[in-house]
Amino acid sequence: MAKFKLSDLKQSSVYITPNFPVISTKRYKFKIQTVAGVIFLFSLLVSVFVITILALTPAKSIIFIFEKEKIQNQAQHIKQLEEKLLFLSSELNKVASKNKKLQYAMMLAGGDSVDTTSAIYDSLKYESWKNLPYGGSVLHVFEAMFKKYFGDDQQKNNIYFISPLKGFVTREFEPAKGHVGFDFSVKRGTPVFASAGGIIIFADHTVDYGNMVIIDHGNGFITKYLHCSTLLKKEREIIEQGEMIALSGNTGAKTTGPHLHFEIWQNGKPIDPKEIIININ
User: Fold this and answer.
1) Within-domain flag for 244
2) In the beta sheet, which residues pair with residue 228?
3) CA 25, CA 279: separation in Å to the nearest integer?
C-alpha cells in the first residue's frame, strides 16, 4: 500500500456530478486548492458579516445583556450558597458549644475529672455552691435549725426533694429500658418548680431534649427538667426549693407530646424519683 504524500493531495481534484434529470450528465472538476480557497473565503465573509452585525446593530447589546444576566444569576446563587454555609457553620458552632457546656455541667455534678482551667468550668462553678440553702419556706427554716443543732452528720447532708409540678406520672423510672426519670403528663405552659434549692448549671436548648434546665443541689445531687417550652432562669442563678424555673412544653426531637421529663442524679448515677420525692403523685 502506497504511503500518503502531501504532494499527492495537491494534485488531487474534486469532481461534482449533478444528480437531477437532464438529457446529458456533466461532471465538474475543481482543484483541491480551489475548494480550500472557496471555503476559506466563505468563512472569512461570514466572520466579517457577524462582526459587522455586532458592531453596527443592537445585537451586541442583546447578547451582552443575556451574558450579564447569566453572570449575575450565577453570582447570586454563589452568594446564597455562601450565606447558607455561614449559617450552617454558625449553627454547628452553637450546637457544639451547648454540648460542651452540657458535658461540663454533668461532670461538675457527677464529680468527674474536668479541666479546671477551662472558661466553661469557671463560668459554671461557684465557690459556695455546696453551702446553698435548700428551701425557702418556714418549714424549711425549722428543719434546717433542727438538723443544725440536733441532727447527726448524715442528716445534715440530707436533701429533700419535692415534685417539680402538679401532674400525673405517666411513665415511671425504667432504667432497663433507658428511661431514667419520670414523665409528668401536663398541658403546655404548666409552671415547673425547682425540686430543691441549688445553682443552675445548665439552661439552654438541646436538639434531642429541647429546652432543658439542670440544677446542682450539692452533695453530688442534680435534677434535670427536659422538654420545657420556656426557660425562666439562666445559668449560674441561685434558686430556692419551689421556685419557678420554667414552663412545660414539647420541645426537642425525643418527645411524643406535651409533658415534663424529670430526673434525679447522685454522683453520676440516676435515682428513682419515687424513692426520694416526698410529695409525688
Assistant:
1) yes
2) 211, 248
3) 117
Q: For the domain that residue 206 is a member of, what is the CATH number?
A: 2.70.70.10
Question: What is the distance between the alpha carbons of residues 164 and 181, in angstroms, rounded to a whole number?
Answer: 12
- Spatial contact of 10 and 33, defined as CB atoms under 8 Å apart: yes
| Residue 245 falls inside a structural domain | yes
Residue 221: which domain range?
132-275
Provide the pLDDT for residue 178. Answer: 92
Residue 117 in any domain: the answer is no
Predicted model pTM: 0.54
Is residue 151 domain-resident?
yes
Give, rounded to a whole angstrom, the gap between the first and last alpha carbons of the chain. 105
In sequence order, the β-bridge partners of residue 206 are 210
157-192 pLDDT, tens digit each: 568 899 999 889 999 999 999 999 999 999 999 999
Instruction: Select from 191, 170, 179, 167 the least CA-distant residue to 246.
Output: 191
Count: domains in the chain? 1
Q: What percent of the chain has pLDDT over 90?
A: 35
pLDDT of residue 113: 40
As to burial, measured by CB atoms within 10 angstroms (0-12 exposed, 13-18 middle, 19+ buried), residue 110 is middle
**69 versus 66: which is more confidently predicted?**
69
